[in-house]
């Protein structure tokens, strides 16, 4: 590919909307616009990744620090669109809203008799626990929804110290919306003072900790009142008992007991699909330095950045073109910077774009039959024979020559 054909536009400054360095360099190197749209160069890079993905080990070969389970592959990234719960010890990985964890149980108690108590202005768990001087885990929290497909009133109870995961709820009962005041009233519940006791036409779900937690304080379904010592089984029952709780950082891994982390991620793949734009971003996050991208072979869209520095006596560009044709015949992917720009500008762009090898054709070297080889990740240049470069028969020979230089 010739540089000008791709319309590459590099930028000196990082875009002000860059959330990560990888994104910033993809924009600065001209793979993406600031608006996160692929340019021609970006499309080249993605087509190249798509070709590589024909091998089954594609994702593992990228050596990215991925987190995965049977269904999805994730890459950790600042301010990503999703979060996973991750166990650094056993590698358990799950979207945080669906993650399992080991819940803290409290000692079993004998069932005490129900007792109605006045609890004025206690329509939140915090206010209730404060007012009664009890920990939040001794209360039952109520959430009320309406199922979308049949308008069924849904009542959910979880221990007061825990948060419901709507994603887990939806796995059991389908799509829901918050119940309206009229729907709550019709069921016999009282907002802020609700419990599953004595409801009409309600689909009741409880978290699996509820049947194991005795003598919880729950609403009396009457404004200003709660019931002490409510007990699942004795005072009410549920259609569905299931894990309904949202995991959080520090919860215990249910496989190994270590502490779970919550990590911001992008999704690289599902069982059915690879997300190449995200894979390119992940590669940029994993492979850059302070000058630009440092894509390794074979993920780099081009193995070689070829450029010439204008000469006084010799036509360096014609020599570079010879190398360009020879490398192409040898099946090496080349980005040929054929612009008549100052060397410094081209060097900067080469560093930004991040091809593993840079070849610079200049007058001084040519006089000795040499061009300049620079590996993107190394500081120094080495001379490499013009003759060898223009008489290659295939990629193996090319990489052998690079290795030996
Ligand atoms: Zn674990």
Notable traits:
12 helices; alpha+beta; 25% helix; 18 strands; five-stranded mixed sheet; 405 residues; five-stranded antiparallel sheet; binds zinc ion
Give structural notes.
The protein is α+β, with helices and mostly antiparallel strands and 405 residues long. The chain has twelve helices and 18 strands. A hairpin with a 5-residue loop joins strand 17 and strand 18. The chain is elongated, with a radius of gyration of 31 Å. Zinc ion binds next to loops.
Q: Give the total of beta strands.
A: 18
User: Strand order of the main beta sheet, please?
Assistant: 1-2-13-3-4
- Biggest sheet layout: 5 strands, antiparallel
Report how far apart the termini are: 25 Å
Helix content: 25-40%
The helix-strand sequence is HHHEEEEEHEEHEHEEEEEHEHEHEHEEHH
Q: How much beta, percentage-wise?
A: 15-25%
Radius of gyration: 31 Å
Ligands bound, unique: zinc ion
Assembly type of the chains comes to single chain
In short:
With 405 residues, the chain is an alpha+beta fold. The chain is 25% helix and 22% strand. It is elongated and about 100 Å long.
């Amino acid at each position: 590919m010739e540089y000008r054909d791709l319309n590459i536009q590099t930028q000196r400054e990082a875009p002000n909307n860059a959330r990560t360095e990888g994104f910033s360099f993809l924009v600065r190197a001209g793979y993406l616009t600031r608006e996160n749209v692929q340019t021609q160069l970006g499309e080249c890079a993605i087509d190249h990744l798509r070709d590589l993905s024909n091998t089954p080990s594609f994702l593992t070969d990228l050596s990215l620090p991925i987190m995965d389970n049977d269904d999805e592959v994730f890459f950790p990234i600042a301010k990503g669109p999703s979060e996973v719960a991750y166990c650094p010890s056993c590698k358990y990985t799950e979207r945080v809203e669906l993650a399992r964890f080991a819940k803290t149980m409290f000692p079993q108690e004998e069932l005490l008799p129900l007792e109605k108590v006045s609890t004025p202005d206690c329509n939140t768990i915090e206010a209730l626990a404060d007012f009664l001087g009890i920990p939040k885990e001794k209360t039952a929290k109520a959430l009320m929804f309406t199922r979308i497909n049949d308008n069924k009133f849904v009542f959910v109870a979880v221990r007061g110290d825990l948060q419901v995961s709507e994603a887990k709820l939806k796995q059991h009962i389908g799509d829901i919306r918050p119940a309206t005041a009229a729907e709550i009233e019709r069921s016999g519940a009282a907002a802020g003072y609700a419990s599953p006791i004595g409801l009409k036409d309600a689909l009741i779900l409880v978290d699996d900790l509820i049947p194991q937690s005795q003598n919880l304080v729950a609403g009396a379904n009457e404004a200003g009142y709660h019931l002490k010592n409510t007990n699942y089984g004795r005072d009410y029952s549920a259609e569905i008992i299931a894990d309904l709780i949202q995991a959080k950082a520090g919860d215990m891994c249910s496989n190994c007991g270590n502490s779970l982390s919550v990590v911001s991620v992008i999704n690289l793949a599902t069982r059915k699909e690879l997300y190449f734009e995200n894979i390119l971003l992940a590669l940029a996050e994993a492979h850059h330095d302070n000058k630009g991208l440092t894509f390794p072979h074979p993920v780099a869209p081009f193995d070689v950045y070829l450029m010439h520095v204008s000469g006084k006596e010799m036509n360096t560009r014609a020599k570079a073109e010879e190398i360009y044709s020879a490398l192409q015949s040898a099946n090496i992917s080349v980005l040929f910077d054929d612009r008549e720009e100052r060397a410094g500008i081209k060097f900067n762009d080469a560093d930004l774009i991040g091809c593993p090898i840079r070849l610079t054709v200049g007058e001084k070297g040519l006089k000795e039959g040499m061009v300049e080889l620079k590996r993107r990740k190394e500081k120094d240049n080495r001379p490499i024979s013009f003759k060898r470069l223009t008489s290659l028969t295939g990629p193996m020979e090319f990489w052998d020559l690079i290795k030996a230089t």
